[in-house]
Amino acid sequence: MGVLNVTPDSFSDGGRYVSPELAVARAQEMLDDGADIIDVGGESSRPGAAPVPVEEEMNRVLPVIQAISHHSSAVLSIDTTKVEVARSALASGAHIINDITAGEADPTMLDLAAETGAGLVLMHMQGRPQTMQDNPKYADLVADVTAYLSTRAELAQQRGVSPQSIAVDPGIGFGKTFDHNWMLLSELQQLSALPYPVLIGISRKRFLGELCGREVDERMPASLAAAVMARSHGAAIIRVHDVKETCDALRVTDRLLREEAL
Ligand code: HH2
Q1: Domains (ranges, CATH) in the chain?
Q2: In this structure, what is the dihedral angle of CA atoms 41, 243, 200, 254, given to the nearest 10 degrees?
């Protein structure tokens, strides 16, 4: 899954793809590099990010989704917590709702997924972006995150979402300390045991920078190592900025995993 943030303030690619022309060109580049899904976002969720009004978010993402779907048959996801944005994005050509609040910000998000048959990514977050990094605490991190995602996925199904449409995501960096992120990555198998594909977003995130002492644009090697480990622990979808390099790393990982399974 290639990341396409149409925002002025995303932590990694903020401000780079604000015009629809640049965004469409970037989407095409990621598709050529091997992305299966392009995740379009119009609101940064980095710690402390300012909320974006619904009209503004729509003005950012809709022209981009319309233009990409006009130019290609790419699978598009919309990274939003707002049901109005998701509804318009689906009507403009998106196929998947990526909701970092797992339908909690707006409970009708689950109904929208049911009604449209869209894919639905349910992500775990403790707190909300404004405050989520203020001392997050868990009784049993991996069990808590796994139970939360399982419960949200069951609720989505009660609302009419097909189980085949659901993916779950532990939300690396969302209400997690440095150690929490490492623990979730190392014990991803527990989440992979749920009957849904696991999506994970590690690309260029702060915990990698902290470990290696690298700024955002120097975190690709660390992101590749994390992607390889996540894949070998069962992640089905990896959300990344560096698509070409990640695809090569995953081709090697998948080939070796297949060999090991023989
Ligand atoms: N991470 C970010 C945004 N959306 N969605 C899912 N499902 N999983 C993630 O880990 C995830 C996500 C944050 O990264 P990015 O979009 O690059 O930055 P920003 O939130 O600043 O726009």
Answers
A1: 2-261 (3.20.20.20)
A2: 150
pTM: 0.96
Q: Which residues are catalytic?
A: 205, 239
pLDDT tens for the chain, 262 residues long, are 999 999 988 888 888 988 889 999 999 999 999 999 999 999 999 888 889 999 999 999 999 999 999 989 999 999 999 999 999 999 999 999 999 999 999 999 999 999 999 999 999 999 888 888 888 999 999 999 999 999 999 999 999 999 999 999 999 999 999 999 999 999 999 999 999 999 999 999 999 999 999 999 999 999 999 999 999 999 999 999 999 999 999 999 999 999 999 8
The answer, yes or no, to whether any atom of ligand 1 lies below 6 A from the CB of 11, is: yes
202 lines ligand 1 (CB under 6 A): no
Residue of minimum CA distance from atom 17 in ligand 1: 12
